[in-house]
Structure formats: structure tokens, C-alpha cells
From TrEMBL:
Family matches, as SMART domains: MCM
Organism of derivation: Rhodosorus marinus
Protein name listed in UniProt: DNA helicase
GO MF, one annotated term: single-stranded DNA binding
Enzyme class: hydrolase
Amino acid sequence: VNSEQTIFDNFQRMTIQESPGSVPAGRLPRQKDVMITADLIDCARPGDAVEVTGVYTHCPDISLNIKNGFPVFSTVIRANYVRKMDESDVTEDLTDDEIFELRKLSQDPKIADRIIASIAPSIYGHKDIKTAIALSLFGGQAKEVGEKHRIRGDINVLLLGDPGTAKSQFLKYVEKTANRAVYTTGKGASAVGLTAAVRKDAVSGEWVLEGGALVLADRGTCLIDEFDKMNDQDRTSIHEAMEQQTISISKAGIVTTLQARCSVIAAANPVKGRYDSSVSFFENVDLTEPILSRFDVLCVVRDAVDPLLDENLARFVVNSHSLSHPSESRTSKLAEANEAPVLSETNVELIPQDLLRKYLIFARRTASPRLGNVDHEKISRLYIDLRRESLSSGGMPIALRHLESIVRMSEARARMHLRSYVKDDDVNLAISVMLESFFQSQKFSVMRGLKRKFFKYLTYYRDDFELLFYLLSRLVRDYLTSHGTVTDDSGEVTLEIDLADFDARAREMGVTNTGEFLSSKAFKDRGFSVNQDTRRILKVL
């Protein structure tokens, strides 16, 4: 090599990888090395979304030359231009007609209920989990305080419950629906696999930085299954990523900070396999208070025996299997879908998954809700009452972070409506989600007392059908408790509920007209019927 005619220049080797949201199911993201020089050096950090323009060429691979004893070439991209992408780039694929359709969809007054019902529609019930996941997908508004301190807008959710309660299925649904989602498991991910790793480059021999799952999920969602199976050392490594949403690295001479602006949805199992309601929340989980306080919503799922719920669940599963059989032609399914809208178990029209994905992307891009003229005093009083009760009840620890969580969830619900401001209805729903999370983490003996104390805060909008189904389930449970399961001559158990008693209790809950509910398809699908002669509601078990 003639050193006089050789041009020496600074260069940097960067590895780019396909975005997790753009990779088809079942395929690994592809990687390619990029050579950048001159002023392009340090133009991006691990986890950034970039668009690279360059020349696809080859260069000698020194390490393989030495190993194999003959010239070996590897392919690289010599970059001419590197552009950092932001959230505005993901909406470029939406046409004007699609944007018009999405804005028209947002005008539906029940759009929030439709979105919640459309989260994992193949899973029956679990409305609290679906609500928490929907709020997490839309997220709140991140804030910069004095250009120095950043307050996160992403909502973290922990699903804790008995085996077989569809926790992992919820995570898999989010992986397919969210724009950018990275799925990992507690056993299969170490601390460096979640945050960032430092390894030695084979070509230059220098230490290079590789981003982990939280870095790759920047501006998206990181899904962690079997969260309780992680080592304590690995779990503490994500403390900074969950609150400050940055990852600080100081290894092998590399000192830097990576962005991890993502929401975390994790699933865990109780210590003894099943959740024990007779002991406190901390005795059921093997998680420390610092990590629990970083979750905005805790969803405790119990596999309790409920005759009415079990029957509805069994009927729902059987119907799902019969409608999803592969032998049915696609054209017949499409014809059935076009004849009538698909309804959820709460009688709300569902949103197709593709349309929901576009709506989610569009909402995060365009809606920036602001906390305006809402009842600030109500939020402050709730926080004070929750703090006082959390110290004595031994349930979920309430910290100042949970006050911010109420604000974030209020903004997320406003974003579902594509609004630029937060209404009292949004705050009421956020308070109900926070209180439900607080109640579920309590002992069974203190849960009822807490519900009576905090009933004044639960003034949020609920669907009349949902209220009436809840009332009906209570009446069925009372009937079974008092009468037992007495069979008739045909061997069937027939429940009879007085219609006048049902109407009276419905009026106490604020529902004056039950006629539409009693004649609805959802009422009949659950096996109920009305005998107008005897004025009784009948159900055959």
C-alpha cells in the first residue's frame, strides 16, 4: 500500500435492522452493516429509526481472510445520507380516504367502548384488562418540564393472575396490533438482552454497543411474559427504563445514554401458582415495591367459580371454535360479515383489527390532549384517600407516580376520541381503572369495605347493558344460593327471576327502561328468555 496516495478518513460501522412492526409473522428481522463517514458519524443512536440512502457494495473481510486463508468479501451499504425518522413518517401510508374514515370513526360517542371491546375479541370477559391494554396502546402525552426534566406519557401494565387466564394471549394480541412491539420472556431475556449489551467487533477489535428489547421498542410497546421468572438483578436493570425511559451505559469505556420511550406490558404468575385472596398482595407476588410502583395499572385475575360466568364462557368458546373452523370458505365468512356488524359480548360493534391498527397509529400521531378544565380537586382528594388506605390495608402501594398515572390514563382516553383536551368523563374512567386496580390487590376481607368508602368516586359512565347483565348475574347467584340446583322431570334446572324485582333493582341503578335489553340478541344468546304471562325471566342450566 502506497501511503502517500492513500486517503485516510474517519469512519463508523453501524448495523441496521428491520423494524419489529414491519416484519411478517414468523420471520426474523434482517440485518445489514452500514459504513458511514465524515459528518454522518454519530448521526444516530441504537434504537433510532433511520432511513439510509447509499450504495450496496462489497469490501474485504479481514477476519474471514485470516480464518479461511483466501480472500473473502462481505457486503455492506456505503451511506450517502442518513435521515432519522419520527412518528410522522408512519402516517405517510394512510390515504386521504382512510384518514377521512378514521376521523368519521372518532365521531362515534361510543368509540372508547368499541376500542376496548375490540381488544382481543376472541377472549371472553376481562374488561379491566382490555381497558388497561387499550389505554396503554394509546398512551398519554409526554411532557418536558423546563427543557430539563421529562415526564413519561407511556402507561405500564402488569397482568398478575392464575394460570389459564389468557395473560399470554393478551400479550400476543398486542404484538400483532401495536405499530412497534417487541415480545420477550422473563426466562429468555437477561439484563443485557432487555437494555443494552457491549461486545467486541470482529473487524476492528473495538467495543461496540447493541440495543436490547427496550431500546428496539422505542416509541412502541415492550411485552415481557413470565415477568416473575426473571432474576432480581435482571429485573432491577429496567428500573430506569420504566420511569425515566432512558438506559445509561458505562461499560468498556463506552459512556452513553440510550432512549427507551416505550410502554411495558408484563405478565406474571403468583408465588404459589394461584392467587390467594386471604393474604396480602405482597405475599402473592415475588416483586419488590420499587418495580411495582412503576406500573400504572395492576390487573389481578382470579379463576373463581361462577356458574353463570362459566356457562357464558363455555358457550363463547364453543361458538368461537365453530365459526373459526378452517373448512369454512373465506367467501362465506366475508358474506356473513357483510350482512351484519360483529358484536361483542357487551352488544358493542367491534372494530376490525386492521382498522384498529390504523386508528391507533393515526391517534398517536395527531392527537395531543391537554389537561384543561377538569375537577382537579377530585383527583387530589382521591390521591389523599388512597395514600391513607394503602398504608393500613397492605395492598398495592400508592405513590406520587399513581397521581401521574391518573393524568396519563385521562389523556389516553381523550386520545381515543382524537380530542385535544381532557373531559371529566376521561378523568372518571381513569379514576375507575385506578380504583379497580387498587381493589383487586386487597385481601378479600377488606375489599368490600374499601369499595363502600370509595363509591363516591365511581361516578363514571357505564353501558346500560353491562349494568343489567351484572344485575342479572347477581340475581342468578342469589337464586342458586337460596334454592340450589333442583332439577325437574326432564333433568334440567330452570331458574326463575321475578321481572318486577329485576325492574325495581334496575331503577335503583339508574336504568328506567329495560325493554330494549330484554329483547336484545345479547340477552337471548346468553340463554335467557321472558315469560310475559308469568312476568318472569327464565334460564335453563
